[in-house]
Amino acid sequence: MLLACRFTFLFLAAVFLLARLSLQTPAPSADPKAEILAFNEKFINAHLRMDNPAIIAMWADDGVSLLPSMAPMVGRATIGKFITDINAQMPGYKIVREKIDFHDIQVSGDWASEWGLETQGLQPPNQPTMEGYGKILFVLHKDPMGQWKIQQEMWNASPKP
Q1: Would you kindly state where each structural domain of the chain is located, as residue ranges?
Q2: Alpha-carbon span 158 to 81, nearest angstrom
Q3: Exposed end of the chain (fewer CB within 10 Å): N or C?
Q4: Beta 130-142 vs 94-108: how paired, if at all?
């Protein structure tokens, strides 16, 4: 009887532990490319709203941004400060157009990469819209909560298409 009680207790403890672990571990996505497309849409919309907290939250804690003529920016905090500082230098500006044509989404487990061609319209106060064009490369990583985050980004300007 004592052996049966111990076995039942151990069995229930194991079931409880497995159930708890399954709640903490996100289920694999049925379509990771669809998740990346949703991430891309969220990224573009956050830029259109100039929603810096949302943009910064899309970065991995140890993400790296490689922009032209700058030292690498390492870490969400550093990248976030850069984004916030740039925004502070542009009072009254609005992003009126943000389009990125992403290509070649490659997914391997919790890692993904893609590149895109960007067009952005920036409206200074009481002035004509400025157009900018660029090329962007993302390496994304899925965090323990199952959210895609920017692990590495490289961007550079390109001529008008």
Answers
A1: 29-157
A2: 25
A3: N
A4: unpaired
Provide the 8-state DSSP code for 30.
S
Domain 29-157 fold is Nuclear Transport Factor 2; Chain: A, (3.10.450)
pLDDT tens track for 91-102: 999 999 999 999
pLDDT at 28: 54
115, 121, 125, 128: CA torsion to nearest 10: 150
Residue 114 and residue 119: Cα distance in Å, rounded? 17
Q: Please tell me the number of Cα atoms within 13 Å of 78 on its side-chain side.
A: 13
Return all residues near 152 (Cβ < 8 A) that are at least 6 apart.
Answer: 63, 64, 65, 66, 137, 138, 139
Contact 145, 26 (CB under 8 A): yes
Tens-digit pLDDT profile for residues 26-78: 555 579 999 999 999 999 999 999 999 999 999 999 999 999 999 999 999 99
Instruction: For residue 66, give every residue at least 6 positions away whose Cβ sits within 8 Å of its Cβ, in sequence order, or none.
Output: 72, 73, 152, 153, 154, 155
Helix, strand, or coil (residue 90)? coil
Q: Tell me the two tokens of residue 75.
A: 């870490």
